[in-house]
Amino acid sequence: MFTPSGQHISAQGTGRYAPSPSGDLHLGNLRTALYAWLLARSTGRRFVLRIEDLDRVQEGSARRQLDDLASLGIDWDDEPLVQSKRTHAYDEAVRELRAKGLVYECFCTRREIQEAASAPHGAPGAYPGTCRQLTDEQRAEKALDRPAALRLRAEVSQWTVCDLFAGRYTDAVDDMVLVRNDGRAAYNLAVVVDDAHQGIDQVVRGDDLLSSTPRQSYLAHLLGLGDIEYAHVPLALNRDGKRLAKRDGAVTMARLRDAGLSCADIARLIAQSMPLRPVRTSTGPHLPETAQQMLEVFSPDAISHDPWTVLDPLMESSCAAC
Ligand code: GLU
Predict the structure, then answer these.
(1) Could you give the C-alpha distances from 243 to 134, 247, 298, in angstroms and in order?
(2) Is 19 in the pocket of ligand 1 (CB under 6 A)?
(3) I need a surface site. Which of 93, 200, 209, 298 has the fewest CB within 10 A?
(4) 188 neighbors 159 (Cβ within 8 angstroms)
(5) Atom in ligand 1 nearest the alpha carbon of residue 29
(6) pTM exceeds 0.85 for this model
């Protein structure tokens, strides 16, 4: 676990990386995966993977993502968990919440939700509870028009979590969607159920997900699941200050390797951004070239709290090589 100063002590839990197979991992994703692996392994934890394929999936990308992680020296315990094979577990969680009176059908369209949520007294972006009090007759009538999504009947309006970087962090909890109206489990439900199933007690991921964390933690609390310690790490940005994306040029392993970089070059580039200090080897000190070498010099205290602005990875790699 992390102490308040960010020092770590040995623990027997499990950390994870949970990519969505919607395309190749870019430098920012790879860096987050390395942080997750380093924070898990440096605290004596197991490390597992999860393929979050409930949304858009690109053919072959899960395999390429695993290969890219392995090529940096990231190793994992167990077979990666695949969310599309876990429907029974999400159904079971919904049954449990329903038995506690915490689930209701919602027939709102996206447009109706946007309009209601932008009303003067609504919390920004929060579902205003339109379908919360429908009578059985109203529900039956609406069900003739469109299939229902299932929402949580939240009993709090905010929740607080502890994060290694953000400290005590409080954000809104609303009647989040548990099951979408196409019958698929929503991300917030799947992530909570699967983290518990995989024995996760440490979640390291990009800080774009920090604002979803209180609602996930609240849902875990309702399901009686264990506490998780969070570390939301800064994202990689492009030269315009926007979240790095594949369209930003040579930022995936495949593109960088096509341009002549080795896996060691890419590892050094990421190590420099974290930043990590040089590792001593028989050939002299140099920036770490594998996950294992990163582990030798890794300390959570030294993680940069600022986003990584990726200008031109090909230029930067020649610098990281010096
Ligand atoms: N699948 C999500 C992503 O690739 C990460 C979810 C999580 O780590 O909880 O952005």
Answers:
(1) 40, 11, 25
(2) yes
(3) 209
(4) no
(5) 4
(6) yes
